Structures are given as C-alpha cells and as structure tokens.
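Lab notebook, bench 4. The sequencing result for the construct came back, and we need a structural model before the next group meeting so we can plan mutations. Quick request posted to the team channel:

Model the 3D structure of this chain.
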Amino acid sequence: MATINMPRDPNTLSNYNNWKTKHTIADLAIDFKKQRVHGTVTLHLESITDKESEAIVLDTSFVDVQTVTVDGSKSDEWVVKDRFESFGSPLEVKIPGGAAKGAIVVLGITISTTDKCTALQWLTPAQTSNKKFPYMFSQCQAIHNRSIFPCQDTPDVKSTYDFRIRSPLPVVASGLPTGASSFVHGQNGEPGTLLYSFSQEIPIPAYLFALASGDLATASIGPRSLVVTGPEELADAKWEFENDMESFIQAAEGIVFPYEWTQYNVLVLPPSFPYGGMENPITTSVTPTLISGDRQNVDVIAHELSHSWSGNLVSNASWEHL
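Done. Here's the predicted structure in token form:
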C-alpha cells in the first residue's frame, strides 16, 4: 500500500499515515449503575493518499463496537481484529475505492466501554469523601483512549473535539464548557440526566481526551481559572491555589507567548488518582495531596501549566521520543 508518510509511532495499530483525524464528536452517556460509557463517536478523517488506501484502521482496546456508518450510511464492511497485546484490537473499516487526497470521510461508531476498560476509574459513593454520589474519571495517557472509543491513539495525530456528555452528575471535560441542557427524567427511580457540552477548538492528541463526573462544585481562583472538587473540599482547595494561579500563568506567558486555551482550571480528583497531576487541556487533574493547607505543593501546578505550551501545543510524535 502506498503511503505519503511513514508512520513514526510504533505504539498505535492505526494506519494514521494514510488517514488523519481532523475532528471528533464524542456523544456519550455515563451509566454509573453499569459502570459503562456508551454512545456514538464521530470521526472526520482526511485522506492523505490519493485513493491508495481502501481501509481506515483505528485503535481499540476492550471496546464493544456495535455499529459503524461511513458518510452517514450503515456499513457492514468492518471488523475488529484479534487482540495484539498490549496495543489492543484494530478496528478495520473498508472504504471501497479509497478517497482522493484531502477528501474527508466521516465514520460514526456506536460503542460501549466494558469492565476491562483501562482508561476509566469508577468509584462507588462509599469511596468518595461525602459518601453520597458515585464518581468517574478518566486517565488516557499514554495509550488508553482506545479503551473508551476507537481512535488514532497516537500523539502524532491531533483533532479538534466536540463533547456531548449525558450524565446525572456534573461533568468536566478537556474542552471549554458551552452549556448544560436537555434534561431527561430518570425512570424506575433512577436520577434524571443533563447533556453537558464542551468544545475544544485547538487540536489535541487522543491522550488528552478527558472526562470526569461526580458531585462537583466550583470556585474562582483567578480571572481565568476555576478549581473543581467535591463540595466539602472546595474552600480548602480554593485557598490552596488562589494566591498563585494567575501569577503562574503570567510568568509562563512572559517566558513564551500568551496562554492559548482561554481558561486554566484545576480538577482535584479523589485519592485514587494515580498521578500527581495530568495536564489535560483547559482543566488539569491533580491529586488531593496538594491540598496541604500551607501552599507548599503548588509547584505541581506550575509544572502542569507548563505543559499547556510544551506537550499540549508542541507535542511529541511518539512515546519513543520521551
């Protein structure tokens, strides 16, 4: 098969050297009872060969792929191939005749996560601080987005995003919030849900896709920053960060160039979060151990903020580069 560019990332099974994801729509629902995320992901992929590639291959890992459409029409010419540890199972979608260079092919893929999903952590109410509501958060770095939905799971591909996330609890995502609407009443005693929408107009790699949903409250910690955490922890988290947040951003802007992402927010996750911090765009995720009551650990925020330039804007092409 002829290609325009040789692939540079050995950690993806996708044929991203033939097709590039330009825009992603994640239209998903969070089901706390079943501990699943399900819905439809729509990928707008640009052909970078001239009709030389007659299949789009995407990364998946333990994802239940249910249906596929190509340019709005149902397709039966797709298959999830055998698993290749530890990279997952490639989803191959036939594109008979290929597509001219620069043409856009739109794939719609209906999916559900499974109990083997490696990107999502689910907490029962008993595992949260106030014991009232369940909680879910994602951690997609380095190659775990493929366990939420099929994608080109490589930092060598960047896509803009629209998030449409339905949940009974507030949602945070790696995009700018554009509203919450379309309340749907629950059935059989289940809580109602809202549709939370976000937009990410700066192209980002798959590992920066992020979601969290739970009993979340927000407070201002600067003119362009919020802290997001549980209601009981909000006052302490606000105090911890509000003294330094804007000065950190301005200091970084003085070294490089103005902050591109509009907002810089901090999501304080439950203690089971496996990292000190994760530089998800718009909203950095951090461990609650930063809330020490003496502002002695806020240097972690400066570190994560720096990735808003180095990492999130200027990215590695492969995890081999680190």
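Helices lie at 234-242, 245-255, 299-306.
Will bring this to the meeting.
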